[in-house]
Amino acid sequence: MLQHLITQDEDLRMVPTDRDQLTTAVEGLREELRALPADADPAWMRVMARWIGIGLVSLGNHHDARAFLRQALDLATAGGNTRAVIATELNLGDAYRYGGDMETADALYRGALDAARSQHPELVDFALQHFGKHLMEQGDLVLARARLKEALRLRIAKGDTGLIESTQAALDRVALLIRP
User: Are 52 and 30 in contact (CB under 8 A)?
Assistant: First the structure.
């Protein structure tokens, strides 16, 4: 939805490729979500709320991002979509991490990783990537490297070049931080 308007900065955090375009796109999605009828498809509402939240995280509006991501999480939970619950918990963890609440972020990442391991092994690499970057920011570089290496192994097995490159960039960042 908004992927083309979001990239990563040197600290591997999501940022807009074009702030004005992302702001306009997020506002458009907010308007579209507000205009939906009360009987709208909850799955579509969840997707929209999640992407609004991701866009707001990228724009640095962590408070509003958390509200939309909580809405998406509630809709995923109510709909019994455990895959969407895990993905949204990772995004919500990012919103808390970017906003400075590392304790809440940590709980969300750990919960998402546990759920991925037990319910959706295809999401384990994503949970490890988010958790590894969180650990890196917390200065737990040894555990960060271990989580990211596990993510890399899984992503190599998947054969997705973009995911492999993303994890390798995180591992490179950890290596840079380990070597003063």
Answer: yes
Q: Which residues are bridge partners to 6 per DSSP?
A: 16
Q: Report the amino acid identity of residue 54.
A: I
Helix, strand, coil shares, percent, the chain, to 5: 80, 5, 15
From the CB of residue 20, how many other CB atoms can be counted at a distance below 10 Å?
A: 9
Distance CA 92, CA 50 (A): 9
Q: What's the one-letter identity of residue 103?
A: E
- pLDDT tens digits for 18-41? 999 999 999 999 999 999 998 999
- Please return the burial class of 31, using the count of CB atoms within 10 Å of its CB with bins 0-12, 13-18 and 19+: exposed
Q: What is the CA radius of gyration of the chain?
A: 16
Tokens of 129: 């990537």
SS3 labels along 165-179: HHHHHHHHHHHHHHC
Q: Do residues 94 and 64 touch, judged by C-beta distance below 8 A?
A: no
Q: Give yes or no for residue 84 having a pLDDT over 70.
A: yes
Q: How far is CA 107 from the centre of its chain?
A: 14
From residue 27, give the alpha-carbon distance in Å to each of 22, 32, 50, 51: 8, 9, 13, 11
